[in-house]
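Dear colleague,

Thank you for sharing your sequence with our group. We've completed the structure prediction you requested, and as agreed, I am returning the results in plain text so they can be pasted directly into your records. Please verify that the sequence below matches your submission; if there's any discrepancy, let me know and we will rerun it promptly.
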Amino acid sequence: MSDHLIETPHSSTEIFHGNIIHVFKDTVKLPNGKIAPREVVRHPGAVAVLAITEEDKVILVQQYRHACGKVLLEVPAGKLDIQGESPERCAFRELAEETPYTATSMTLLYTFYTAAGFCDEKMYLYQAHGLTKNSQAKADEDEFVEQVYLSKEEVREALMQQKIQDSKTLIALQHWLAQ
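Please find the predicted structure tokens below.
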């Protein structure tokens, strides 16, 4: 690690406390000794699930994303919002909530920060194994999703046409296509 690049926390003031995020106005001491401002969004973290059916189709969900102002095509995902819930357990839950499938196991593929320049949200990307179509697919009451099933060829076409713009989904699909 390059310790000479580290910024040292100097002060922190919470300026917004929401249901999902908290926003802070921080100051840091730079490696050169100067003080600089930082605005930071604190987030509890989230999971995403790459789930492939027996027919070799990826399970995606379409949902409207208010912040983007459009319907996006995404892998099933959700935030860590149950106290003490592990990311793996959250992945099982989100798959069952957003799709008609459950899984027998999950493999952690990657962890990554979704927007490291201003947000500490850490995403855990899992691949689901042993899918069974036995879930009631009950999304949260404020979530409206539709499932979409795409083959590798259909995913390639959707990527070429820029129909998939969600970062966690791009990472998951590129992993699947590379297998």
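Summary note from our side: The chain has a mean pLDDT of 95.

Kind regards,
the structure core
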